[in-house]
Amino acid sequence: MAVRKHPDWIKVRASLSPEYFRTRKILGDLKLHSVCQEACCPNIGECFSHRTATFMLMGDVCTRNCPYCAVTHGKARPLDPDEPRRIADAVRELGLQHVVVTSVDRDDLPDGGAAHFAATARAIKSALPETRVEVLVPDFQGSFASVETVIESPVDIYNHNIETVPSLYRTARPGGRYERSLDALQHAKETARASGKPTMTKAGIMLGLGEQRGELMTVLEDLARVECDIITLGQYLRPSPDHLPVARYVPPEEFAEIKEDALALGFRHVESGPLVRSSYHAWEHVS
Question: Which of 26-35, 203-212, 251-260 has the lowest mean pLDDT?
């Protein structure tokens, strides 16, 4: 049965600091999208107030229609070749030392947008060589060539979300394939190692969609097997009544237990808590 009321530990205090409005203005002036805004992230006030944002490439319309996600679905617009430069300008204006860049799914593009990710990473590093670049990429429909295009660009962290356990893929992630996502993460690690790059891999999982604890541990074991470095675990929150309902609110103490179990598997860093998202405090994951 679906749970309707948020527990107390889910409540977030809104932030209206000057830095919050400054970050919004910079994104607006440069005509950029952020997943913070498009996906209704509960941490937007905190992150914008700290002059951080997860930039969303290739527009705000996704070619997939995952029933947990608030991003608009439909026919995507052509790529903007000037977007990588504007992202770099925003990173410079915000003074970021760690930047996260993600995108909508672009299954309409032959490479899934991999070359656009690579161009953005190059633009950021050209403007700010010391800034760490984290990319949160789609599965590229299993294209290893696309994975290689991104890994061979100057990225520091290759992030791809597993999202949920395999038994819930048909319900929650009908456009994805669990094994395909694992294979992409493994290929990213192997490609980076072969080229001598210290690129780390990262994956995120939502809890509260109806997964069982044993299923979750199997996913974590699979991620450890493909040498994923960083794991994020957070509570699924229903964006609207039209999206998948929350099956269960996982209490903070259970997130803490899962973190300890995950660390025992050998991950470099585990971020686990009700309000954790893939890029929440991302700069701390590699410190």
Answer: 26-35
Q: Who has greater pLDDT, 166 or 31? A: 166
Q: HEC string of 141-188?
A: HHCHHHHHHHHCCCCCEEECCCECCHHHHHHHCCCCCHHHHHHHHHHH
Q: How many CA atoms lie within 13 A of 155 on its CB side?
A: 32
Compute the Cα dihedral for 277, 281, 284, 286 and give only its sign.
positive
pTM passes above 0.85: yes
Alpha-carbon distance of 141 to 184, in angstroms, equals: 9
Strand, coil or helix: 198: coil
Spatial distance between the Cα atoms of 109 and 100, rounded to a whole number of angstroms: 22
Considering the four listed CATH numbers 3.20.20, 1.20.1250, 3.20.16, 3.30.70, the one that applies to the domain covering 14-284 is: 3.20.20
Domain-by-domain residue ranges, the chain? 14-284
Please name the residues in contact with 184: beta carbons below 8 A apart, sequence gap of 6 or more.
139, 140, 142, 144, 147, 160
Q: What is the pLDDT of residues 200-218, one digit of tens each?
A: 999 999 999 999 999 999 9
